[in-house]
TrEMBL record:
Source taxon at top rank: Bacteria
Domain (NAD(P)-binding) ranges: 7-196
Family matches, as SUPFAM superfamilies: NAD(P)-binding Rossmann-fold domains (SSF51735)
Cross-referenced InterPro entries: NAD(P)-bd_dom, NAD(P)-bd_dom_sf, Polyketide_Oxido-like
Protein name stated in the entry: NAD dependent epimerase/dehydratase
Alphabetical list of Gene3D superfamilies matching this protein: NAD(P)-binding Rossmann-like Domain (3.40.50.720)
Length: 208
């Protein structure tokens, strides 16, 4: 598969990149600083650009078959409209480049998944993460209303441990306790999801 990974320099994106390379795909990464991926073993194409720029994205999407987006704001609690603006740019660029498949990384607690959160989670989402979650919700509206065959992935608290290879993924999961998931496992699922249409037009809540 000719696969474009947007945000590949982030911690989850790197895992997606490594998985795609292991599987032998033709991979292109798109991020602001692709030079930060020089330690990743394997051959892949690197394109520097702005995920909110339709022009940059069209160049990156040309000749691709599918897109995985792992955009994030790191430790920041402010979205600065990254998700809403990039979603609009990605949708328009994909239409121009004639791409139909997108797997998009969100966060558990955004949109309809909020109703299945624990009380502690809901408090966090309404306070500390309020701005980012509102912007992610707006971005998802754009994606759902687009021409794309989308999958929106909602991981619980992301951890940096080794992949477990065992996780739960469903359209809805009622949470208990302190749910979490390793980024490597999320990346594995995102990679699998983009390969076919089993998860097209579906939410994918993923946790341990």
């Amino acid at each position: 598969m000719k696969l474009l990974i947007i945000g590949a320099s982030g911690p989850t994106g790197r895992h997606v990149l490594e998985k795609a390379l292991q599987e032998g795909d033709t991979v292109t990464v798109f991020c602001r600083h692709p030079e930060s991926l020089k330690d990743v073993k394997g051959d892949f194409f690197k394109i520097a650009g702005d995920a909110t720029s339709q022009e940059d994205l069209v160049k990156a999407m040309t000749s691709q078959e599918a897109v995985i987006s792992t955009l994030g704001r790191g430790k920041s609690t402010q979205a600065n409209n990254l998700f809403s603006q990039s979603a609009k740019a990605i949708v328009q660029a994909a239409k121009i480049a004639k791409i139909s498949r997108l797997v998009w990384l969100s966060s558990f607690g955004v949109g309809e998944t909020f109703q299945d959160a624990t009380m502690i989670q809901k408090f966090m989402y309404r306070t500390l993460l309020k701005d980012i979650y509102a912007n992610k919700k707006a971005s998802e509206k754009t994606i759902r209303e687009s021409h794309l065959k989308w999958t929106i992935v909602y991981p619980t608290a992301l951890m940096n441990g080794s992949p477990k290879g065992k996780y739960r993924v469903h359209d809805r999961i009622k949470m208990k306790g302190a749910p979490r998931i390793d980024r490597a496992d999320v990346a594995e699922f995102m990679y699998k999801a983009v390969q076919n249409d089993e998860w097209s037009f579906r939410n994918a809540v993923i946790t341990n």
